[in-house]
TrEMBL record:
GO terms for molecular function: hydrolase activity. The keyword Repeat does not apply. This is Alpha/beta hydrolase. Gene3D superfamilies: alpha/beta hydrolase. Keywords: Hydrolase. Residues 44-280 form the AB hydrolase-1 domain. The lineage of its organism: Bacteria, Pseudomonadati, Bacteroidota, Cytophagia, Cytophagales. InterPro entries: AB_hydrolase_1, AB_hydrolase_fold, AB_hydrolase_sf, Epox_hydrolase-like. Pfam families: Abhydrolase_1.
């Protein structure tokens, strides 16, 4: 299996990150080997960073779409999730950015399009401020937690601390019940709306339940309390921001809107009526927008108005 070992051994043993490395229609089964013989080295590599509390497998529709078009796709499991190591600590954004750097370095990736979903958007921002955005040519923030989720005196549009406290209490009381309820909000499932099947909810429950309970709790604290407002100014590459205006998990008012204010030159796409999990509920539109952005050669360094679908 493809694993990359980070340099972090603070918790008694090395941390190994599971990496899915796909080129074209063939799946790589070895880590840190660079491009396969069928890869087109002139094309960008797309690195997908998953959201909480899932794993790299959430990207299956996007990886298949881009691999079928000849792109190299890399998707990895964050520490504590999926098939990656589950250490007792290191669930902070400096460490997450260092883990991302290890993936990019070990696979010798260049001309990277970095796609971060939800809490993965924080990794994108911190990677730029901490590692200078090394080897990244474009960035994408999808339903991202950036720039700052928590409501404070200088961030009045944020989410109240009580909301996150209740999440933590519910996770500690009955993590499985919490995950089951959370998934419905994630996709906008209710009595009259069923944008995903029960089978899909079951699959996500399985992915989330396999994560470390410690990582699940600590990552929720990290994405809810980390202030990325200063990090955002370090993102100097062409950037695409995508957010659903019916997102109840990461409300657009405190995230997508604020991110665009801090990155006024970014291409900002608002998906009308879409929930947090739009990588499934609006997968065709998302794939199309990502492809257009990846293929776009020219970048207009000027303020860009939001586009709503």
């Amino acid at each position: 299996m493809p694993y990359i070992q980070t340099k972090d051994s603070r918790f008694g043993e090395p941390v190994n990150l599971f990496v899915q490395d796909v080129t074209g229609s063939s799946y790589s089964s070895s880590s840190a080997t660079g491009l396969s013989s069928s890869a087109d080295t002139t094309q960008p590599t797309i690195v997908f960073i998953h959201g909480w509390p899932l794993s790299h497998e959430m990207w299956e529709n996007q990886v298949a779409y881009f691999a079928d078009r000849g792109y190299r796709c890399v998707a990895y499991d964050r520490r504590g999730f999926g098939k990656s190591s589950k250490p007792w600590g290191g669930y902070d954004y400096d460490t997450f950015a260092d883990d991302l750097k290890a993936v990019i370095d070990e696979l010798n990736l260049n001309n990277v399009v970095l796609v971060g979903f939800s809490m993965g958007g924080g990794e994108v921002a911190r990677y730029f401020s901490r590692h200078g955005g090394a080897n990244v040519s474009k960035a994408v923030l999808v339903s991202a937690v950036t720039p700052f989720m928590l409501q404070t005196d200088d961030n009045p549009d944020g989410v109240p601390q009580d909301t996150f406290d209740s999440m933590a209490e519910d996770m500690q009381k009955d993590r499985y019940a919490f995950l089951e309820t959370f998934a419905k909000q994630f996709y906008g499932v209710n009595l009259v709306s069923h944008p995903v099947s029960q089978a899909h909810l079951n699959h996500d429950f399985m992915l989330a339940s396999l994560a470390s309970p410690k990582a699940t709790l600590e990552c929720a604290k990290a994405f809810s309390s980390t202030d990325f407002r200063d990090d955002m100014s370090s993102i100097t590459v062409p950037t695409l921001i995508i957010h659903g205006d019916a997102d109840k998990t990461v409300p657009i008012e405190s995230s997508g809107e604020k991110s665009h204010e801090l990155l006024p030159n970014a291409d900002y796409r608002i998906y009308d009526g879409e929930p947090h999990g739009l990588f499934v509920t609006a997968k065709d539109q998302l794939n199309e927008d990502l492809l257009n952005f990846v293929q776009e050669a020219a970048y207009q360094n000027q303020s860009s108005a939001a586009v709503t679908y």
